[in-house]
Amino acid sequence: MFLKLLLRDLIVAAVVVGAWTLAAPLSAGSGPLADLSGALLGVGAFVVTHLAHEWGHLLGAFATGARVAAPARLASPFLFSFDSKRNSRRQFVLMSLSGFAVTAAALYVAYGLLPEALLATRVARGLIVFSASLTLLLEVPLLAASLLSGSILAQVEVFPATAPPQSRAD
Q1: Which of 2, 39, 103, 130 could be stapled to 169 by a disulfide with Cβ–Cβ 3.0 to 4.6 Å?
Q2: What's the CA dihedral at 45, 122, 59, 4 to 10 degrees?
């Protein structure tokens, strides 16, 4: 299932990058076309950032040999569920930090590489900052609580496993 999810997300990223390349200059102007292209491209960048964040977590889990479960459907917003009972706190911390690192990289791209004059850039930046804020508000407390309590909280399991947990891509 992870290979199918990777293919899905690479297609989404390719479509967004292609659309950005072709249509981003339209968002430099004014009027409905500039507004529409800027909004759609900014949302596309947000979607790619969310997917990259999730892949950062998953790759961190794979790198530590953590046990994870794949979603039952390709339409899931989550790539995996972390097994809070069978994984170590070290695996959880590294899985968490790898997602945070990808979010930091996305912020660098948004503010360091995207062209300033585009509405698409401003929308992308706003949504990526929103996403980073959600990470701080939702994920950092789970990490902190796990570190302080000495155990992994069950809330990290985002969906029930439908198949045996896996420790690497299949």
Answers
A1: 2
A2: -10
Instruction: Supply the pTM of this predicted model.
Output: 0.88
* Per-domain boundaries in the chain: 2-148
Angle at 39 between CA 105 and CA 14, to 5 degrees: 55
pLDDT band of 167, cuts 50, 70, 90: low
Q: Is residue 38 within 8 Å of residue 118, measured between CB atoms?
A: yes
What CA–CA distances, in Å, run from 153 to 38, 52, 75, 156?
Answer: 39, 24, 25, 6
Please, are residues 89 and 149 in contact by the beta-carbon 8 Å criterion? no
> What pLDDT shows up at residue 151?
81
For the chain, what is the mean pLDDT?
90
Residue with tokens 């170590």: 88
Q: Under DSSP, is residue 50 helix (H, G, I), strand (E, B) or coil?
A: helix
Query: Does residue 168 or residue 43 have the better pLDDT?
Result: 43
